[in-house]
Amino acid sequence: SLLLRTDGLNVAAFASAAAFLEAVTVQQPGCLVLDVRMPGMSGLDLQKQLQARGFGMPILFMTGHGDVPMAIRAMKAGAFDFLEKPFQGAKLLERVREALALDARQHGRQARRAEAAARLALLSPREREVLDRVVIGQYNKVIAAELGISLSTVEIHRKRVMEKLQAESLADLIRTLTLLNDE
What we know:
Layout: H1 2-6, H2 17-23, E1 32-35, H3 43-52, E2 59-63, H4 68-76, E3 81-84, H5 89-120, H6 125-134, H7 140-147, H8 151-164, H9 170-181
Parallel strand pairs: 1-2, 2-3
């Protein structure tokens, strides 16, 4: 933690996995640097518990006692990286910075997704029907015929959809829906 602090990073150190679990929140930004061997719960067991809780922070493992199967297990479970001791401090700093950048991108994407979902929830059922047809490329005349409404009503609904979703083009609409479906 001293190395990370001297590089200007905010660091919180915990004596055990249990102490960490008591203090952390799911949405908290950052990255987690774990040793495979820790007092009480192992780093791999902590990773498993965090996944069960929906914890998305990147996890960087370090160990002096690792082997290939252990590294594979950690990486398959979603670890950001697995560093074997001894390693250069610069390597740890580089990987922590990369993990923090990844986490920032993930949080940004989650915020954009939540904002898009909130805007989508503003649509009336009819506006949603129009939206669903617009994004698959149906013409207003076809939408009107399928929904049994006038062409001008389709145009009004389409305009409201664009306003509520803050879209300036069909491409914007598709990007918004893609963001919501991107997992």
